[in-house]
Amino acid sequence: MKQVFYEKISGLIGSILIAVFVLGLAESISSGAAGFWGGLPFWVICFVVLPLVFYDFWDSCLRKKK
Q1: Buried-most residue among 5, 13, 53, 63 (CB within 10 A)?
Q2: pLDDT 10s digits, 3-48
Q3: Which of 15-32 are b and which e, b meaning 16 or more Cβ less than 10 Å from the residue's Cβ?
């Protein structure tokens, strides 16, 4: 039981840290020399990849396995 709980907590913390890092990087790129239009492709990539990260967290930690 403890291992399942630790797996859920560490998966949630890891997913949140990845999201904060990637979104912070995207914001930094957009506000820097690249400007909004230069950073827009990275924002699009972020909003495509981050749902995949959270889906993997759900699939590996939260979904009921048969």
Answers
A1: 53
A2: 889 999 999 999 999 999 999 999 999 998 888 888 899 999 999 9
A3: beeeeeebeeebeebbee
Say whether 32 sits in a helix, a strand or coil.
coil
The token pair at 44 is 């699009």
Amino acid residing at 21: F
> What's the token pair of residue 20?
């904060």
Taking the model in full, what pTM does it have? 0.84
Judged by DSSP in three states, 37 sits in: helix
Please give the backbone phi and psi of residue 56, each rounded to the nearest 5 degrees, phi first.
-65, -40
